[in-house]
Please model this.
Amino acid sequence: VTQLSKQLSEHLVAAELARRGIVATPFSGNVPDIDILAFKSGKSISVQVKSAKTGNITVANVERDYLILKQEGNFQRVIAK
Model:
């Protein structure tokens, strides 16, 4: 599982929590043991997301399924499909 796959998984979980009415904030890997902080009705919990890969099949192919990634000099452009 690549770092990009891990980040995508965390953001997909945060998006699903938001879809269910839960405020969810993903962290960028600098908070030990916490990937997402979720809050609803005065209560907050920390969430740790695990990504999976089986054989040569990844959970999501980011570039094929969701994004167009373009390197432009020192910057990377991310375009949603």
Q: What stands out?
A: The first strand starts at residue 23 and ends at 26. The beta strands are 23-26, 36-40, 43-47, 53-54, 57-58, 67-72, 75-80. The chain has one domain: 3-80. Helices lie at 3-19, 62-65.
